[in-house]
Amino acid sequence: METEIEREKMERGKSDLRVAMEELCLLSPGDGEEQEQQQQIRSSTMDLLCVSKQLLHVLDEIGPTLLVLRQDIQQNVQRLQDLHARDSSKYSTLTAILIEEVEEGTSKKTNSCTRAIIWLARSMNFSVHLLERLMKNPESSLKEMVEEAYKSTLKPFHGWISSAAYRV
């Protein structure tokens, strides 16, 4: 009975994440001006924040198993939100944030928004891989699924200490 409830929660979470990802993904770029407009939309700071917040809701539904991932995402969302709140028109696109940090020489610093963007993308990649595995093999253990998704997405970017946090 408990497993059924957990699976139902995961199914709702998967659909939430899928909807959020579909909202972020746009059609392939067109020509000229249309392509430029689509690129600006695609790199919207608010879109990334919206999808990241949707992902947090999905992780809440899965439960405390992925608490470390959830905390990382929340921290990176907060960093981007704070910058965006300072000047929402200036920082309306991820590209504007990246260009500014590269020009200032701050893009490689631990607390940069550049790193926040990179880690949010990696976290989403991990989550998509995990949810796809859960959909394909609903009878498999969550532990196995987390480990498989972790190995194929986040492990190459983590040291051994961080790797320990993703063991279920």
UniProtKB/TrEMBL annotation:
Pfam families: GLTP. This is Glycolipid transfer protein domain-containing protein. One of its GO terms (cellular component) is cytosol. InterPro entries: GLTP_sf (IPR036497), Glycolipid_transfer_prot_dom (IPR014830). Residues 45-167 form the Glycolipid transfer protein domain. SUPFAM superfamilies: Glycolipid transfer protein, GLTP. GO terms for molecular function: ceramide 1-phosphate binding; ceramide 1-phosphate transfer activity. It comes from Triticum turgidum subsp. durum (Durum wheat).
